Amino acid sequence: MKRNRTLLGLMALVLVLTMVAGCGSKNNNSNEGAKPTNSANTSETAKPEETAAPEISGEITVITQRTDIVDTVFKEYATEFNKEYPDVKVNFQGLSDYEGQITVRMNSNDYGDVLLIPTSIPLADTAQFFEPLGDLAEMSKQYIGLEERAVDGKAYGLPTAVNFSGILYNKKVFSDAGITTAPRTPDEFLAALKAIKDKGDAIPLYTNYADGWPLTQWEAVLTTAAGSVDYVNIDQVNSDDNFVPGKPHYDLYKIMYDAAKQGLIEPDPTTTNWDASKVDMANGKIGAMVLGSWAIGQVQALAANPDDIAYMPYPTNAKEIIMPLADDYTLGISVHSKNKEAARAWLDWFINKSGYPTEQAGGMSPVVGAELPATLKQFEGTDVKFELQTPAQAGQEGFVDKIDKDAEIGLWQPEFKKRIIEAGIGNLKDSYDDIMKDLNDAWVKSRAKVVK
Amino acid sequence: MVFKNLTYKTQRRIIIVAFSIIPVALLITFAYLPVFNMFKYSFTNWNGYSKTYDHVGLENYKTIFTDSKYFTVFKVALYYFGATFVQMGLALYFATILSFKTRFKNFFKGVLFFPFLMNGVAIGFIFLFFFRADGTLDTVLQFIGLGDFTQGWLLNPKIINISLSGASVWRYMGFNFIIFLGAISSIGKDIYEAADIDGANRWHQFVHIIIPSIQKILQLNLILAISGAISAFDIPYIMTNGSNGSNTFVIQTVTTAFKYNKLGMASAMAVVLLIIVVLVTVLQKALIKEDK
């Protein structure tokens, strides 16, 4: 009996010791342990062939949000890439909730070599996490859209594509209702929606309220509502009157409110479904949706007659019609990367030669002089202009975002758009002007804090 | 051997320490340390990833209690609080019935417990289809001739919280039910027999035998259910994302932390929630003790 107890005690001790020992060596293991997990979803790896050509070598991890194609298209990219750089081994990791997961990982030093710069990282903090890619002035000769991630004259991110924003609509639904030319002003647009409603075959304007994120696409057309490329980053920051009548934000969301109020949106916004909405639009059950250019290809792919799916600028009373160009995610290199040269080689190859910007992201290539995509060619010869927004003035970089976050307005979040729709359909007692006043008050308060 | 020469008392101590060190270490690493950090962050304006942040003292707490935006969401918790009692009542009802002789007893036990085993996300989607216009609920109502009662179940801001707390009752009732069932079945058969001989009917048995015997379990379930009501999250988050007036305090916390990058503020909100739950529990314990 006594011996048993001794044995038991010993075994317990041994157990504890091994556990403690196990904990101690955890640090050493974790680095190695990470590699096998990575290679589970890694791509084809290049056999280090004996080619003398480029000296660049090493292993890099590329993190992407495109979980849909990480195991297919990206693998082909790696194979292509290895023809030029045979000594670089490229691993891929796909994150389904990219923004959420990557910001948590960025608290550590292990967040891959090449990754998309999360939009929630303030401009001022970019240098803490990312490697400068080069001189902004120098690189601007080669690429557009670098300003979005440029600090102190250095560029930190290359856009994976350049998108344009406006309204995706089903031409046939509009023409069946007697609308043959794309409406240009808010009044014309609402009249067109009304005509579609009276015809009764389709939901005129689909908001995708329940999914939430499609509502954030409206913010992207602010430049069109303003009719000026300076508004978003310059005029807005320097004005206390951001949401008052007559200002772009007021006009922009007035269309949303009026459409909701006049019953021109889906009958039950609370139970919408994004994937179903794409099919419905392709089949002519939905007239229009406010979405970025990336959605064109997705809906066209579902349509029996892809030519019915067309794109128009957001209706505006402004003198000039400007369809704003904006960066998709920008691609950057981690400051903690051990193979920065290899990472840079992949980055350049991916933007210039992979075909990703046009084929997969559905936008324009950020490379200067690249060909326009087919969807844009219809606007050649019209008075519709395609322009990038003017970047913020020196010293005011990232101010829009800072004010927005501090005020909890959520320009790029669905919250206040939902409130507008709820008010429009009569679920809230607030009027449109009440909502705009709340937003403007919050804006004024936080602007005073940020712009000193 | 060294161990053998130690006194029994020391041996006992060593073994106790040896066995408890692992769970205690895990508990500290994964429960207390994060909570400690949360308290720390609640006094800062950290945005969640920057390497630097400022200490702002009690600023975050002041904002929570002065800005109506943060505190009015507790109104929604009242719906879930009310639903708690429906949930407990139903669970107790089914547990009692199924503890007596019933046909297909085990089948019904399985059916009632099943929702609790299901993934919360799946349940969210099921109820999204259930409540949508011309969805399952409307179809059933029309089929049985109650078509006039169809509603925009999630559209109408007056009933959205009732719809959502209904889904929540469906999901969590099985858990309360199984605990009640366990407690009730531990009551000896002889007590029922004695009651039968004395001429007690089922209702008398329920009031005078079952309820007193499971009082402790009843309290426990109540505490769990109420703290669950205050921190209601998964069903409304998946189904409506807190829109249309269904925002709860936890959803508000998540929004603050991850949409507006105010992790310091969100930590303060979490601390407030923690304190409220502790207070409710203590209060409940104190009140029930007085009863005895």
Automatic annotation (TrEMBL), chain A:
Region (Disordered): 26-56
Signal peptide residues on this chain, from the entry's feature table: 1-21
Keyword check for Membrane: yes
Annotated Pfam families: SBP_bac_1
Superkingdom assignment: Bacteria
Bias kind Polar residues: ranges: 26-43
SUPFAM superfamilies documented for this protein: Periplasmic binding protein-like II
This protein's UniProt keywords: Cell membrane, Lipoprotein, Membrane, Palmitate, Signal
Protein name: Extracellular solute-binding protein
